[in-house]
Amino acid sequence: MLKLTTAQCSHAGERATNEDVLGVRIREHDACFMLSDGVGGETGEGHAAKLAIRGALRQFESSLGSSLDALVQSSLAAAHVSIVAVQARHPERSRMAATMVGLFIDRLRGLAQWIHVGDGRLYRFRRGVLLERTMDHSLVAQLAAAGLPHDGVNPKPSEPGARSGRSSTLAAAIGTTLARWRCLSTMYRRFLAWLAGS
């Protein structure tokens, strides 16, 4: 059985408010850790992150005995549906969406699978060394990956052209038609540490 140790901390950084929402569930045979951050303008950002986490955790809790891949897919789909349902009932919140990072662990088999949508990040460390991290679903990341110039694409909040103090043009988010996500899975080994951030 894989033993888990967890800790959490959240900070607004340069923002006026912090809309990060963390969800954690540890069961006997599996566990999930999720972080969501609201996006989409002034209306409903923080609410979108709460809806995403609530929907994903509710699905996770009702999925006892499911495979790791099924837990990941159904939990993230539930997060998306939770936001879209509120958008349909409240047109003034039609632009709200959320980023999400999730780590799902099969404690019996020592497997982990992670997922991310948007610019939330998950970092994997072993013995203090960064082994890998998720890549942002953002315009800047896509341009950089293609080897294209991207200076000035997302102005810093203090620069002309910046909007709402945000500096990331997302290519994917939960609650939008761009809600695509990437899943990876890996074998868990001793001395691994994970860190999520938005």
Task: Give a structural overview.
The protein is α+β, with helices and mostly antiparallel strands and 198 residues long. The chain folds into two domains: 20-134 and 172-197, 4-Layer Sandwich (Phosphatase 2c, domain 1); 138-171, no CATH class. It is 23% helix and 29% strand. It is built from three helices and eight strands; from the N terminus they run ββααββββαββ. The protein has helices at 45-61, 68-89, 139-145; strands at 20-26, 30-39, 97-106, 111-117, 121-126, 129-133, 182-187, 192-197. It has a five-stranded antiparallel beta sheet with strand order 1-2-3-4-7, covered by helices on one side. The protein has a three-stranded antiparallel beta sheet with strand order 6-5-8, with no helix packed on it. The longest helix is centred in the middle third of the chain and has 22 residues, at 68-89. The radius of gyration is 17 Å and the shape is globular. It starts with 19 loop residues before the first strand and ends with a strand.
